[in-house]
Design a protein that fits this description.
8 helices; about 35% helix
Length: about 240
């Protein structure tokens, strides 16, 4: 498990450093499949946001488009990376709201904070930490978003428990993620390249729903959006705390 976590950290640290040094990202991941590389923000206005934030968006969807954010809400982005979803959410909730970005990778956090300073966005705070141990108080968040990150965790039940803990009663969980449509073998799950490419760690659709319900969520919905690889799809997952 420690090997997987370190492999994930290294991959995204490398991506952040490449963006900072050369102004470009690492390119498509051959382990991820063509479907993972489609631009989910193609029809969304991202003007006024730093190029680094856009380049560092390595997700599989656009959770801000499905979260129905409102003025004044407090939002948490699990695995916020370069900060694009955080910044887009900050626009949605307005100056009376706030958005936290949580990431475990120092290099991504540095990139995100630089972009925040460049864009002069005040209602945002980036936190270092792991999504299995969220450094925020109980019942402090209105909405949790995440973009293709939960599949990277080695402790999905812990992620779901923590998400439920920090959400206010009735709070919303609205994420995009890669989920599996078949059961991966142990050999497939042990492939570090495939895991860091968002495939080997993907939960089966049934397990994702059951995991959320087991953590206390209700009204769980899973909507498949597109194929990303044999046996894996991108999906929108919504639930209520």
């Amino acid at each position: 498990m420690a090997d997987i976590k370190e492999a994930v950290r290294k991959r995204y640290a490398t991506a952040a450093l490449q963006i900072r040094e050369s102004g470009s990202c690492c390119g498509p991941d051959p382990a991820a499949g063509d479907g993972l590389n489609a631009d989910p923000y193609a029809t969304l206005a991202t003007e006024g946001l730093p190029d680094a934030a856009r380049l560092a968006s390595l997700g599989c969807g656009n959770p801000t488009a499905v979260a129905a954010l409102e003025d004044g809400e407090v939002v948490l982005d699990l695995g916020s990376g370069g900060g694009l979803d955080v910044f887009l959410s900050a626009r949605r909730v307005g100056p009376s709201g706030k958005v936290y970005g949580l990431d475990m990778t120092d290099e991504m956090l540095e990139l995100a904070r630089r972009s925040q300073a460049e864009a002069r966005i005040e209602n945002v705070e980036f936190l270092k930490g792991e999504i299995e141990a969220i450094p925020l108080p109980d019942h402090s968040i209105d909405v949790i978003i995440s973009n293709c990150v939960i599949n990277l965790s080695v402790d999905k039940p812990g992620v779901f428990r923590e998400a439920h803990r920090v959400l206010k009663p009735g709070g919303r969980f609205a994420v995009t993620d890669i989920v599996a449509t078949r059961r991966f073998t142990e050999e497939e799950q042990s492939d570090l390249v495939s895991w860091t490419g968002c495939l080997a760690g993907a939960l089966h659709t049934d397990d994702f729903v059951a995991g959320l319900e087991g953590a206390g969520f209700h009204d769980v919905e899973l909507e498949v959006t597109h194929d990303v690889a044999p046996g894996a799809v991108s999906a929108i997952i919504r639930a209520t705390a």
